[in-house]
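Study this one:
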Amino acid sequence: MLKNIILSADEILIRKARRKAEEEHTTLNSRFQEWLKNYTSTDFNASDYDDLMNRFSYAKPTGKYSRDEMNER
C-alpha cells in the first residue's frame, strides 16, 4: 500500500529534479521511492562486497609504499 507524504524543498530545486527525471524517462516520485528503498536498506552481504570490488578492479597497486608515501597529501 502506498502512503502519501508531504516534503518541503526549494521550488527551483524541485523544478530541476522534475526536469532531470523527465530526461531519464521517469518521475520524481519513482526516483524518490528508489532513493527511499536504498536509504532504508541496511542489508549488506558478500555479493555486495564482491560487486564493489569488481567495480574497482581497474585499480592496481604498483608496489609497496612507505608510511610517509601513503600519508602524503
